[in-house]
Every structure is written in C-alpha cells, then in structure tokens.
Amino acid sequence: MTLDPQILLLTLYGTLFGFIFGIIPIAGATTALITLYGFLNYFQGHAYNLLAFTTAIVVSCTVGDLFASIVMNIPGGGGSAATMVDGFPLSKQGQAARALSAAIFSSCGMGFVWGVLVFVFLPYYSKVVMLFGIPELWAFVLMALACICFVNNKYWVRGIIGLLLGTFLGLVGTNPVTNSLRFTGGWMYLGEGIQLLPLMAGVLAMPEILEAINFRGNFIAQGNDQWSQIKQGYLDFWNNKWIAVRGSIVGGIVGLLPGIGGPIVDWLAYSNVVASNKNEQIPFGQGNIKGVIGPESSVLAQKSTAYIPTVLFGIPAAPFEAIIMSLLYGVGLDLGSRRILTDTAFFSTLTTSYMLSLLLTFFIAIIFIRYAVNINKIPFKYWAIPLLGVITWSCVQYTGGWEDYAMLAMCCTLGIVLKYLKISRASFIIGFVMAPRVEALTRQYIAIYDWIDLLKHPIALMLLGCGIVAILYGMIYSKSTIEYV
User: Fold this and answer.
1) What's the Cα-to-Cα distance from 197 to each of 81, 207, 262, rounded to whole Å?
2) How many helices (H) and strands (E) does the chain have?
3) At 181, is the secondary structure helix, strand, or coil?
4) What distances in angstroms separate CA 116 from CA 113, 355, 369, one per listed residue?
5) Main-chain phi, psi angles of 424, to 5 degrees
6) What's the mean pLDDT when you consider all of the chain?
7) How many CA atoms within 13 Å lie on the side-chain side of 155?
8) 182 by DSSP, 3-state: which?
9) pLDDT tens digit string along 169-213?
10) Rounded CA gap, 341 and 132, in Å?
11) Which of 80, 144, 162, 386 is 20 to 30 A from 460 (CA-CA)?
C-alpha cells in the first residue's frame, strides 16, 4: 500500500519530540507518551497517525536516553542506567564523543536488525495467534503474570503485592456481568473505573521527576577532535560487533517476556559482557568501551520484541506498552484483537514508522554529539517545571473538575509509597491493565470448560509449565542487587 505522506510527516515529528524527551534526564519514553493524552482528540479519525507518532517516540527516546547517562552520569528514561558505569568514566577522560558514538552505533545497529526480525515478519507471527483459543489465551495470561512477579525483580513477594493491588484497582468501576458499581465507595467519578493516565503519571512519572528536581548532575567537558572520536566509536562498535549481537539477543529475549523489560535489560546485557570478558586491560567501571556497547545494544532490541506480545495478544510487555495500548484504544485500535491481526495497513504503518524513525534518530544523534554537553548542562529543575505542567494538564482532561486533580494527587501519593516500599510498580501497572482481560478470560473458561479439559490443550499446558518455571526461578535463585521499577 502507499503510505499517506502525513504518516511520514508524523513520524518525523514523533522522532523530534521523542528525542527531546530522551535527552531530558529521567524523562524517557514513558513520560513522553503520557503527555500525549491531552492531545488525543487531534488523532481521532487518524489512528495510524498516532501509531506512527508513538512508534517514533519509542525509538528516538530510547536512543536519546544514552546522552544523559554518558555525559552527566544521570540515567535517562530507564534503559541506559548500566551505560553510566563505563560511559561516564570515558567522558571524564575527555572521550565523551567516542562513548556516545559507540553507543549510538550499537543501539541503532542492533535496533535495525531486530526491527527487521520483528516488524517485517510481525504479520506472519500473527498466524500463530490463530491457534490460540480461550484455554491457550488464559494460560498465556497466567504465564505472563508469573513472569511479571517472579522474574521482574528480587523482591518477588512485593511483586505479587504490586500485581494484586494493581489488579484490584483495575476491577474498580462497573461489574461487566451485573452492570452494577463495585469497589467505588459510592464515588460516582469511579463509575467507569480509574483512568489509566493519572495512574500511569502518578505511579511512574511523578515520583521520578520529583526526586530528580534536587539531583545534582556531574558536568564535564568533551575532548577536542570530536569527529575523530565519532569515527573511533564506530570502529569500537565494529570490532566488538559480537558483543553487540549477544547484548541484542539478551534484549530480544527479555522483550518477549511480559513485564520484565525496562531497567532490567541493560543490566542483564552489561552483566553478560563483564562475565564473558575477563582480564581486560581497562577494568570495567573505569571506561571500558565494551561496557557501553553491551547494554546499549540491548535496549532497542527489547523495545522491538516488546511489541510482539502487545500487538498479538494485547498483553503489555512493559509499562510503556501499556500506555501505547491505551492511547491506540482511544482512537479505535484495539491491540490483541482479531481485527488488528488482519489489518495490513496497521502492520505497514508500524514497520515504516519504526524503520524511518530509526534512520532519522541515528543521524540526529550523531550530529547532536557536538552539542550534547551544552544542552545537558541545563539544570533538571528547568526541565521539570514544564514537564510537571504538561503532565498535570494531560491528566485533568477526563472531566476537567476538581476530581481529576484529586485522583492525580492520590495516584502520586500511591506512586511515592510504592517506590519507597520497593513494591514493583511495573507489576502494579501491568496488573491494573490486565485486570479486565484476566477476569473476562477466567469467566469464559469456567463457563465453557472443566479444569480437566486443559489436558486436551498441549499449548496451554506448555504455557502453564513455563509459568511454573518462572515461579520456581524467582523463589529459588537469588537476584542481583539492582532495584527495578
């Protein structure tokens, strides 16, 4: 099909919009996507425009994240935290351009490979979904919930708490069977349920922004001859291309597993690099370029494969996918539905916008290396004020009254409590989003099948087995000391 030129233009705008949010410390794709709710009316009747715009944001934000991590030693939106370990020491040595270049080539190079593997062939993967009936979908959801709780972080008990709390809040509103209100406490505002936007903003974005306002970054000057360093960064990537490939495989696998993406993926890839490269002349943590290439090669691979369970099954593989699902649903695109699986225009738009935004982001990022230090010297409090304003404005569009502000305040308080208690906010959000689906599938299964009927569905049994493995893994094996969202 011939793509609408407006979709190509929206991809360009989304790339620029996302890159700006990417270079803002702490912000990232989640915050950028949250700000779109206030402008959702502009995309009504133009669903594919929003699809292109959100896809471009995810790509460009992911690459933009690495600038703050390397130059300022402040994590971007969550996917480049491990890059700081060796990226910032290289910056202090006057090799910021080299580290940024190696990171960009690694991220975009592997992003292209996995973009082809995922988006070009995504319509063919959709045929597999046709083999899934209610027992298989129900088992897949249970496996996803097991992964979210037990593979997501070392606090698996708190992961369960987060999931159960999110599921409970996801059921607030109208009972689909009796059409009566439930769990609303008599507050009619909750008749249609808790709105996703203030919950996402309050739980994920606001706590990080508020915490970062008083953060003091470390600013350093780049060395001279930056174009030479950019060339060296490319050579570093090429000479260590198999490290990049291994890192991307880690990211690709993690992206497929619902709920365990985000901040975990770059640390897993970094750990893989350290474990497989002993006795380095430059120790890891002191400016080893391999410590930049490994984690950065994983992040776009994870973002790419995260679209597979989200698009095909309607199960968000990461919090940012939950926002995308909600945004697209608001303009008539129901991810995971049978209609989407046969929509060639949807897949064509998704593939084109991803590939085009990746190409645009690469050139923008390479050019931006020369200006990275000056832009990132802007204190975060100056970024934070407009960010807070846009997010708050977006969150109060539901009714426009005081109840919107009250809900946002309650969600912010909840987010701060969850962060302080180290209760998995990713588990909470995905539990909230998945609650109606879990309830519907469970009701359908009970109404149609007996439990013994699972024995007649080998795919469902296999999925349940994978869920049991995830539970045993989480309970038996100790996790790293990294604290995940």
Assistant:
1) 25, 15, 19
2) 23, 2
3) strand
4) 5, 8, 27
5) -55, 115
6) 82
7) 19
8) strand
9) 999 988 888 888 898 888 989 988 888 778 878 887 788 777 766
10) 13
11) 162
